Amino acid sequence: MGLDEALTSGSTSTSTNSLFSLNHRNSYSSIIDQYYEEQDSPVESFHETTALTINYPRRQRGLSISSNSSEKLVVILVGLPAGGKSTISNHLIQFLSHNTSTQHMRCKVFNAGQVRRKLSCRGRPMALANNSSEDLFNPKNTQKKEKYAKITLKELFSELSSDLCDVAIFDATNSTERRRSFLFHEMRVFNSDISHNFHITPLVLQVSSVDHAFVRYNIHNKTFNQDYFDKPYEFAVRDFARRLSHYYSQFVPFTKLEFDRHVAEGKFIEEDRGLFWFSIVNAGLSNSSQLNASHFPEQSSPMIEELVRVIESFVDSYAEVYGFKYIEKAKSFINGESTERDQGRAGQSSDVPYLATLNRIVDDEYFRELNWTSSN
């Protein structure tokens, strides 16, 4: 069975779709348009000049931030849905809070998915799309999806500027070079604003699960989040598998070439304080040391250097400190030994054959049609 056929077949999916459709409720497109009408702040595509890109007064060349000025770190997460980004970002906050040199820092996650659910669901179950024009995750609706990320980024900048946090984690897929270029540009614009008392240093943390067993387990867990908790398990798996395939078709991993390019571009301002890149693959089970890079310019502050050192320790020890629990749970589930989540869900008994249903939908053919190998 082909990918499109597998994701759309089955009487359960067809009949269930009508129960959660957008026929009688606003679509994602109308919801996000309504939001910007209320805010009176339209936002264009990421590759264009936007309302979010403010023309700040530029710092004079030759002047640099004084040694006693405050620094902020923004962790840019990169990775596909169900790759473990949100879990790892929460673990990072725990790790920083237990380290003596960073425990005083205020950390916060800015999650684009949560912003989307907050604006679109508004306390109600999520309505799913009837067609591709309403499907937020279809590539043709990229600009609509980007707007939720922009709202999240705007909130992040606001809290940094107001000195409400020191380490901001931007939790979104950030899955294309264009999106990441936009983020780096906006941070440089923020840093060049003479009214800001704080300077942002970016750190890319790429998170991925490339093992097929881990991907299946992650999809299983996603079916219990706010998007799907009220919907039948099989329908939720099919819908999220479709969503993941859309993201995968556009995903471009962060690479050393991209890192080097942004380091070079960052030097057009005098306040360049560095750029850093780390990766966690398969919950730390796979070696990702070759996917790390650091740029410490002369202006790099001792605070940023120490913070990056602690995060590097977090990445290196992730499997032993946090990842092993996930790995054991995933293995137990895939081997059919786990009863986790068997407490049932809305409208279903507790004896749903989760593993059999999952393996039937997210089968080997699913990965072949995506050209998704375990070594990606």
What does this structure look like?
By secondary structure, the chain is of the alpha/beta class. Helix content is 46%, strand content 11%. It contains 14 helices and 6 strands. The chain is globular and about 60 Å long. The chain starts with a helix and ends in a 6-residue tail after the last helix. One of its GO terms (molecular function) is ATP binding. Residues 63-280 form the 6-phosphofructo-2-kinase domain.
Defining key terms:
376 residues; alpha/beta; Rossmann fold; 6 strands; 11% strand; globular; disordered N terminus; LAFE_0G18404g1_1
Strand content: 5-15%
Backbone structural class: alpha/beta
First-residue to last-residue Cα separation: 23 Å
CATH architecture: 3-Layer(aba) Sandwich
- Mean pLDDT equals 77
CATH class membership: Alpha Beta
Number of helices: 14
Order of helices and strands: HHHEHEHHEHEHHHEEHHHH
- Write down the overall geometry: globular
Q: Strands of the biggest beta sheet: in what spatial order?
A: 2-3-1-4-5-6
According to CATH, the homologous superfamily is P-loop containing nucleotide triphosphate hydrolases
Domains, number = 1
Low-pLDDT segments: 1-38, 40-69
Name the helicity range.
40-55%
Biggest sheet overview: 6 strands, mixed
| Strand tally | 6
Instruction: Look up the CATH topology.
Output: Rossmann fold
> Compute the gyration radius: what is it?
21 Å
Organism: Lachancea fermentati
Protein name: LAFE_0G18404g1_1
Domain 6-phosphofructo-2-kinase: 63-280
Keywords: ATP-binding, Nucleotide-binding
